[in-house]
Amino acid sequence: MRESTAGTVMVFVAAAGFGTIGIFGEIAASINLELATLLPVRFGIATVVVGTLAGIRGWSYPTTKRDWLVTLSLGVVYTGMTLFYFVALRYLTAGLTTIILYTYPAIVIGLSTVFLNENITYTKIAALTLAMAGVGLVVGTNTAGADPLGVALALGAAACYAIYTAGSRHLSSSISPNGLMLGILVGTTGSMLVFGVLDTGLAVPVGRDEWGVIIGMVVLSTVLPLLLFYEGVSRLEASRVAVISTVEPVVTVTLGATLLDEPLTPFVVAGGILVIGAVLLTQY
Predict the structure, then answer these.
(1) Are 111 and 162 in contact (CB under 8 A)?
(2) What is the pTM (predicted TM-score) of this model?
(3) Other Cβ atoms closer than 10 A to 3
């Protein structure tokens, strides 16, 4: 299997894993599990799991002060993306928030062209257009009365996601995928703990339902997809990673229809086909 094909499969499966976040988020909301508890505990446990795996399997860590500084900083950027997104949901519909968030592949293409010396090609533009059109069909929304603050927050999430993706690709040339993941996870966990303290105060999950949601997110939405994501990032251009990652909302909506009896419309199916087409187009 070609390196680029292997990378595509890894990022695709990782995006499918990240797509479960929305489902676990809905379940967390239904049982009143606060974000200030959910997010710090999720990333804290994930960091412990990955750190344990690193020790057992002899994975490399970031080796220099610079490596630790940049990976920790990207972790803070990832936290910013997460918080911008969830706060934006207080002002906008989930559909509009997601559509604005998934403008981030366009930002990645711009960043990767300027800073990573990647070329803009007609194929990339076509894949990006297909992907964004597909996301629009999958999510669907009414933009009437959109709150400007919500739009700004969602754009902030998109910018953070783009910096995180392009930055991860840049660092993958000097830091191993596992070392990159560990450094970023530590940065995310530390900044999430600060958020938890400043928001409502840190609290330990209680009961089987709360722990079930958190453990599910740790395994399916965090550790496994991150392992695959960073391996994929080391094999692909940042712009291709961003386009392939648009499969995430398709997975979320499909799982919602399958597990939560949410509607699956012809528009969703058509949008999913466009996104898959965009992923396949990135291979050329």
Answers:
(1) yes
(2) 0.89
(3) 10
